């Protein structure tokens, strides 16, 4: 069996198309990890502001906005800030129109600030509220001062000039915002212990879960395509000759499947190295999760062998493998592993090996239930054994 394992690996190493596939899979993994990183909480949010009014009021708004924690404000012209938003350099761009101060003083502030967000922005709404709070502060101050002037004017109560009265009321109103406003909004981050079920929300890196999800799809694709060895051996008459030697067929089958799993393990090592070197995170934070991944690979190879015993040519297998990998990955939730899903979709995902693998990973990472992790591993192992037993029976019975 060891010799068959070595020969199978050597044959694959000489196939430049197969080698290119093995090298391409970690590259795809790296791209997905990088893309999913955009969903991570960022320590600083970049935002651009253009000041066309150029008054003390607009400058004060920008100054206070820039002082907000977690923001990096970039100032420029209207065209500059729009370009920054369009090229994803900032989350949003704000343009303070000319006449802003005059509108504040006259209590007419609508449509004096324009907002331009980049198409992928997730936080522009919060940024609008943060900037709007500073505008509301100036507006409230001006409104209170205007009202005081009107009341004093109506009842002829003012012993001082109206300008001095207006400034005194404005300053008093503005002082009420310190050390904090009279009304505040408290923001809380919901964690897994406050969510209903771990299968839907897991408190780990979104890039990590996205990487695990796409890795499951890539491993499925690799193991399905590498199952073509059975078709090639059948067409070359090697299966027929192996049946004539007692025990040879079993060694051929086991050695070739072990070679498949070896190649898959190499891809996992490449991806783990990319995750550590490029993103500063381990692919799987616990050794038992690698055991679960190994059991998943056994199941995926069993699916590949079960398909290979039924198709007539390598071309048919090559056509079916991508469809099967993508379809099962889609249903299994691999493409949105880091997003919460409804319970109905979580149950549907368990119709696929990817769904069970992700369920086991999430159960372990969340620390909710070791039994759930063991159940996922047990189901995958049982599926893999049954599929390989069925495939070998087909081969041995001359039906493949």
UniProtKB/TrEMBL annotation:
Membrane topology: Multi-pass membrane protein
Gene Ontology terms for molecular function: ABC-type transporter activity
Source domain of life: Bacteria
Annotated ABC-2 type transporter transmembrane domain residues: 16-387
Keyword tags: Cell membrane, Membrane, Transmembrane, Transmembrane helix
One Pfam family this sequence matches: ABC2_membrane_3
Entry GO terms, CC: plasma membrane
Subcellular location: Cell membrane
Protein name: ABC-2 family transporter protein
Organism listed in the record: Aneurinibacillus soli
């Amino acid at each position: 069996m060891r010799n068959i394992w070595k020969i199978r690996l050597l044959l694959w190493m000489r196939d430049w198309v197969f080698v290119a596939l093995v090298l391409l899979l970690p590259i795809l993994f790296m791209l997905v990890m990088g893309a999913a990183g955009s969903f991570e909480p960022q320590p600083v949010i970049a935002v651009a502001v253009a000041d066309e009014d150029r008054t003390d009021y607009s400058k004060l708004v920008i100054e206070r906005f820039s002082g907000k924690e977690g923001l990096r404000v970039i100032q420029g012209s209207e065209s500059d800030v729009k370009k920054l938003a369009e090229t994803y350099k900032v989350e949003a761009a704000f343009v303070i129109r000319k006449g802003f101060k005059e509108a504040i003083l006259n209590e007419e502030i609508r449509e004096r600030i324009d907002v331009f967000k980049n198409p992928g922005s997730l936080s522009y709404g919060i940024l609008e509220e943060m900037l709007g709070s500073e505008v509301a502060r100036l507006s409230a101050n001006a409104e209170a001062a205007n009202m005081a002037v009107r009341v004093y004017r109506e009842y002829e109560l003012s012993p001082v000039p109206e300008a001095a009265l207006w400034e005194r009321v404005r300053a008093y109103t503005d002082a009420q915002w310190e050390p904090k406003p009279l009304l505040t909004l408290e923001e809380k981050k919901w964690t897994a212990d406050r969510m209903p079920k771990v299968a839907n929300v897991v408190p780990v890196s979104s890039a990590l879960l996205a990487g695990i999800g796409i890795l499951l799809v890539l491993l499925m694709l690799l193991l399905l395509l590498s199952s073509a060895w059975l078709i090639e051996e059948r067409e070359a008459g090697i299966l027929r000759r192996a049946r004539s030697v007692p025990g040879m067929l079993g060694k051929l089958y086991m050695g070739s499947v072990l070679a498949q799993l070896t190649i898959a393990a190499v891809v996992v090592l490449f991806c783990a190295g990319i995750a550590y070197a490029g993103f500063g995170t381990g692919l799987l934070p616990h050794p038992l999760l690698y055991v679960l991944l190994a059991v998943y690979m056994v199941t995926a190879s069993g699916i590949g062998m079960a398909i290979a015993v039924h198709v007539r040519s390598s071309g048919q297998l090559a056509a079916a493998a991508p469809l099967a990998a993508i379809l099962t990955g889609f249903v299994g939730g691999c493409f949105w592993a880091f997003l919460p899903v409804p319970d109905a979709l979580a149950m549907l995902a368990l119709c696929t090996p990817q769904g069970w693998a992700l369920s086991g990973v999430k159960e372990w990472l969340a620390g909710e239930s070791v039994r759930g992790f063991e159940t996922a591993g047990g189901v995958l192992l049982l599926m893999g054994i049954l599929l390989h037993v069925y495939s070998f029976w087909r081969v041995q019975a001359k039906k493949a």
